[in-house]
Specification:
heterodimer, A: 7 helices, globular, B: mainly alpha
Chain lengths: ~240, ~110
């Protein structure tokens, strides 16, 4: 088959899902790889975050001013927040991963509030697609075990046998269920929120969706917070020394 | 420590209760289904893993409520509802006894 036809078929296939409303809108192709609207949005978010922190930390001063103030406030706020769960030492260790989770998910959720997002090509909240949330949850899954093994060595695997060996299948299933649960919660909430706003907009575009938009400002922050805090407590549980508690 | 102005850990656990339950049952079911198709043993592994998934969901819920299950005694506590109820009754009786004399004095 002609590759161009095959590519068009695949594009149509992606667009057919979720009847009518384009869920997977392919913007363009890089070689054989289709690039979706949500991919472009998440790239934009990555670039915005990267630029923000690059500009904020490019010229560090002892007495901060301008953008450095904002960056310091963000980083210190996150550090305080994680220190409440992990303790100061471990919070510093895992801040890069967990802080990035929070900021990325927060911006992803809020990118759905940009007027026209989901309708205009190239604007779409990445977290309203469960491929993105699934990828984030898989990162949490591997990070949990990697940090656990790094902190405790082989004795990390002992916790699969607690309280006794018969719990092994339950503990293993729990490890698989956690990322699925993280995925579904974040995706479900953001997708539901987007869909409600979409329908409100199509029914009564003037003023009616405003309360929902306000609510989704709060929900976006809460969902980002919940994903991060759960990732934190998973990593915390896998790396905690037994004497600590 | 204990800087948690939003009560965010509790919030996270509360919001994760429902999806944890659903996710563990789903993981159990689909894993069982997959293995059954692999080995041609339908429906036994599906049933087994579905039950295991349900048990996992209950375990996760219990952990969210009462803390981590780490020692065999914790399992005893979890399973022995009868013991817990009798202990609860004992405590209630003790409280009643401690209150009764005051009432008589008055």
């Amino acid at each position: 088959m002609d590759p161009r036809i095959r590519r068009e078929n695949r594009t149509r296939q992606f667009q057919m899902q979720k009847g009518g409303r384009k869920l997977h809108d392919v913007l363009f192709h890089i070689g054989p790889v289709p690039v979706f609207s949500l991919t472009v949005t998440s790239w934009a978010i990555i670039i915005i975050l990267g630029l923000f922190f690059f500009l904020g930390t490019r010229n560090l001063q002892r007495v901060p001013s301008g953008l450095q103030n904002v960056v310091e406030a963000v980083v210190e706020g996150l550090l305080d927040f994680f220190a409440g769960v992990l303790g100061e030492k471990r919070a510093r260790m895992y801040l890069p991963l967990l802080g990035t989770f929070f900021l990325f998910i927060l911006l992803c959720n809020y990118s759905g509030l940009i007027p026209g997002s989901g309708e205009i090509d190239g604007f779409k909240a990445p977290t309203s697609d469960w491929n993105v949330t699934g990828a984030l949850a898989i990162v949490v899954f591997f990070a949990t075990h990697y940090y656990g093994i790094k902190a405790k060595g082989l004795s990390y695997f002992k916790h699969f046998l607690t309280p006794f060996a018969a719990f092994l299948p339950l503990n293993l299933l729990e490890e698989v269920a956690r990322p699925l649960s993280l995925t579904l919660r974040l995706f479900g909430n953001v997708f539901a929120e987007e869909t409600i706003i979409f329908f409100l907009l199509s029914m009564a575009p003037f003023l009616v969706p405003v309360p929902m938009l306000a609510l989704s400002l709060m929900l976006g922050a809460i969902q980002a917070l919940v994903f991060t805090i759960l990732a934190t407590s998973y990593i915390g549980a896998s790396t905690e020394e037994h004497e600590e508690h | 420590m204990a800087k948690d102005p939003w009560g965010s850990k509790a919030l996270g656990q509360a919001l994760s209760l429902a999806t944890n339950m659903a996710a563990s049952v789903a993981v159990g079911f689909f894993l069982g289904d997959f293995l059954d198709k692999r080995f041609g043993t339908w429906p036994w592994l599906t049933i087994l893993f579905f039950l295991l998934g349900t048990a996992t969901g209950m375990k996760m819920t219990y952990q969210a409520v009462s803390g981590k299950i780490e020692t065999p005694e914790d399992v005893q506590k979890m399973v022995n509802i009868k013991d817990n109820m009798t202990r609860l009754k004992e405590v209630r009786d003790q409280i009643k006894k401690s209150q009764d004399p005051k009432d008589e004095d008055q």
